[in-house]
Amino acid sequence: MNSQDFKFYNPAKIVSGNQALDSLGYELSQLQAQRLLMITDRGVLEAGLIDRVNESLEKSDDISTVLYDDVPPDSSPAAINAAARVFRENECDAIVAVGGGSVIDTGKAVNIVVSEGAEDILELKGSKLRKPMKPLIAIPTTAGTGSEVTYAAMIRDPDRNEKVIFASYQLIPDVAILDPRMTVSLPPLMTAATAMDAMSHALEACISNHRNPVSDAHGFAAIKLIRENLLPVIKNGENIQGRSYLANAACMAGAAFSNSGVGVIHALGHALGGECGVPHGVAMNIFLPHGLEYNMSEVKDIIAGLLLPLAGPEVYVQTPKDKRAEKTVEHIRKFKDHLYELTKLSRTLNEAGVKSNALEAVAQKAIKDAAVYFNPKKITYEDAMALLEKAFQ
Ligand SMILES: [Fe+2]
Fold first, then answer.
1. What is the rounded average pLDDT of the residues 378-382?
2. Are residue 81 and residue 171 in the same domain, yes or no?
3. Rg from Cα positions in the chain
4. How far is Cα 329 from Cα 268, in angstroms, rounded to an integer?
5. The pTM of the whole model exceeds 0.85
6. Residue 298 lies in domain
7. Mean pLDDT in the chain?
8. Protein residues near ligand 1, an ion, with CB under 5 A
9. Could you give the number of structural domains in the chain?
10. Is residue 293 classed exposed, middle or buried when 0-12, 13-18 and 19+ CB atoms within 10 A define those classes?
11. Is there a single domain that holds both residue 168 and residue 195?
């Protein structure tokens, strides 16, 4: 696709700010929702974040809530089907997903099952969604996946040891509520890993072969906000303004890649998650500089331009034009080193505990991943192996 011919679709209403959660009741009333299925996981529940959501609904007498709190770290068909049964048994009419990417993706997948009248999410793999969806509100408790505004839901099929992706504009939540009170207790390591997922969305969206000026604008703004706010937030988790900016960055990066796609970094990350269980944000942090270097021959000028949001105007103007692309990669490496010093976020596959004998299976899976379609440079098995070996240590 020529970047001058594009579509950009992001219908999610974004409600952001220090008190954003307080508008949940109003947003539900706008969607004519009264009987909610609230989906979350145990960690979010134990952190007291569901109490906070319930408090925001105290004045909404006409709204009742049923809770499903058993979402695993990687959204699974069993959890999705169980939550869909709870939705039906309680005659719910809307879904509120409170959590990280796995929980929000579960919310989207439950919406598919209940809207399509199915019993099992896997029955619907590869089929077109035909029925109107139920209202869905996403309240992220991490600032990373951008799932609150994306068109995709990724689940893990444990029987086949693979990730299954559902993608449709219909899956985009109606409302994304970004309230820094929901991310303030996120530990430094998780804050770093999830932010580097958002960073990878922004960078890959900007170099994608489906990039366009509108997704570029979202991507550039997200990279700048992460550069300015991630290290300060890791040093002081209570930095509410910084938390809010990171949430905005993750959301914009999500809107960017939801429209222009991600590439080889995600292809490798999906495969590594499926084969070795490495958390997605950790994988993104590991593969980021290698994926940029791999694409240098195709999109060097674009990678050079990314130095501006990534390093700031001073570094950008001080770097000769023909050195900016390499400087972009160098900055990513420096950023990773800072994060490692502060949080021990793995920089290499070796540090993440991946065994070298797993790499061939990861490479095989990565070259079949849908994300390679959007990567500016074609990728063969040998290319994937070479990338994995570089990322090893
Ligand atoms: Fe991602």
1. 98
2. yes
3. 20
4. 18
5. yes
6. 188-392
7. 96
8. 197
9. 2
10. middle
11. no
